[in-house]
Hints:
Number of helices: 7
Helix content: 25-40%
Strand order of the largest sheet: 1-3-4-5-2-6
Number of strands: 6
Low-confidence stretches: 1-17
Largest sheet: 6 strands, mixed
Mean pLDDT: 84
Distance between the termini: 41 Å
Structural class: alpha/beta
Amino acid sequence: xxxxxxxxxxxxxxxxxxxxxxxxxxxxxxxxxxxxxxxxxxxxxxxxxxxxxxxxxxxxxxxxxxxxxxxxxxxxxxxxxxxxxxxxxxxxxxxxxxxxxxxxxxxxxxxxxxxxxxxxxxxxxxxxxxxxxxxxxxxxxxxxxxxxxxxxxxxxxxxxxxxxxxxxxxxxxxxxxxxx
Length: 180
């Protein structure tokens, strides 16, 4: 299943629409800086939140700041075939897995821990997204401080408005703010 893995040099392709561009100084811009900082000190950074909170969008914005990354849109089927040990990428490459399965499942947890172990062996970093915190499920299975989870709580009113403008929402809806 390696055909689903592509090595990239800060170029995202095959995206239908580029995500909302965070304004410098915004909360999301600060989150991007925070996550890139975490990637310098932790082996695994996990972003979690409910559906439509902007996890993929945030991963894209983080990827834009990385020297080398490998991006994978994860499905349940693809997840079980991920093999970091077979990758040939520069040290400090960030493996980005967008949408890992539910970590509550012990088999998923174990697979994530194997991926983490392989990343550590190659001096890669792991950046993932999902619906729940990773730390609560891997506590006791990893070295303290090598994994951090950070929650996204949703898009701001300005972000929602900007996205709606991009999708040509009627001006009446934008003016009424009835999209909340």
